[in-house]
TrEMBL record:
It is found in: Postsynaptic cell membrane. InterPro entries: 5HT3_rcpt, 5HT3_rcpt_A, LGIC_TM_5-HT3, Neur_chan_lig-bd, Neur_chan_lig-bd_sf, Neur_channel, Neuro-gated_channel_TM_sf, Neuro_actylchol_rec. The chain crosses the membrane at residues 219-244, 250-267, 279-306, 370-391. Its main location: membrane. The keyword Transmembrane helix applies. This is Uncharacterized protein.
Amino acid sequence: AESVPEKSKRSALNQLTRTLLRNYDCGVRPVHNWTSLTTVYIDLILQSVLDDGKTQSITTSILYRQVWTDEFLVWDPEEFDGINEISLSSDAIWIPDVIVTEVNEGKSPQIPYVYVNSSGSVRNYRPMQVVLACSLEMYAFPFDKQNCSLTFRSWLHSVTEIDLALWRSAEAIANDKREFMNDGEWELLSIPSSYWQIHQDDTDYAHIQFNVLIRRRPLLYVVGLLIPSIFLMLVDITSFYLPLNSGTRIVFKVSILLGYTVFRVNITEELPSTAVRTPLIVFFVVCMALLMLSLIKSMLVVKLLYHNEKELEPSLEEDLLSLNEIQDEPSRLDWLLQELASLRLALSQDDKESSAQADWLDLCSKLDRFLFRFYLLVVVLYTSTLLLLWASWSFA
Ligand SMILES: *[C@@H]1O[C@H](CO)[C@@H](O)[C@H](O)[C@H]1NC(C)=O
Ligand SMILES: *[C@@H]1O[C@H](CO)[C@@H](O)[C@H](O)[C@H]1NC(C)=O
Ligand SMILES: *[C@@H]1O[C@H](CO)[C@@H](O)[C@H](O)[C@H]1NC(C)=O
């Protein structure tokens, strides 16, 4: 007997929901006069940018908010225990078909409720994970900026039925970085937005496009790729000061080249596949070419150096042969004389030989120095061009 009054005394919340939804048709655009249009106010807050290094698709998680007025969801708070705002099931009421056009929405959770206040304003907030359409201009990698667009429109309704507008001012949306997780690879520059209408089949459709402008933080790549490369080049340049005739120089340069090859194999795995035709990759290839050039140059100079010594050796043997011939003479005095003469000859020969060798070494060193200067010039020119280019990109 006590349950009957309980039942009639439903909670105000329950009563309000029933009253609102009693004759509600969720398939009908909620306007009294069909000629009036429904304006959907949209808003966007960017939370994070995740990019997949391999495919270079940029995924963002955003907070998407849309607000519109439902003329049938209006009540007087006085009648319902002062309730000014309730949440309703989003399946039970009309929801605009505003979607993101260029991307497939990824793993966006379904939020089953919307908030409605007593003047009929419906707030539909939901988190979204979307894959952005970016130009992916990689030329300046790793100093690149990306301009990714995100366009919202009503898929079916023309602008005479559903119009779009920004909820906050365009500047407020553009500069809202409060929610952005700023410690990733990307830095958020701004999110300018624009509104326009597309004419299709005699009907106009409203669009709002957000351009997400982000810039890559190059530090990771500079520290991980550029600086080791530059160090190896510096070590290679310094190795020109190793003595030319000791033979260690070539061994040293070969080890540097080997080290660089290992380094290159490692970095190709780290770089995005779309970065293949960028100045950075060209930089690595040119570095390798320069290392090879310096190795070949050293080899040439060393070859020249030893080529000369080999030429000298046969003449030495001839001398020894001639000495042997002289030794065959029997007379003791003659033998002594000849011995002295040969000694003098050998000494002068030695002198000539060593002075010729010294001359040759000198010549080779001069050639070495000349080639080294030429090499240094090429390296400096190349490096300064590249650094200027990168500096202009990173400060642009
Ligand atoms: C609907 O609105 C239009 C223009 O605002 C008006 O001319 C028309 O009379 C209205 N229709 C009804 C049924 O109220
Ligand atoms: C309902 O919400 C809208 C926007 O959120 C606001 O402009 C309006 O004043 C609110 N109405 C009431 C009665 O609170
Ligand atoms: C971004 O791209 C859009 C076109 O998709 C263009 O209108 C806009 O000017 C670009 N913004 C910048 C800063 O390049």
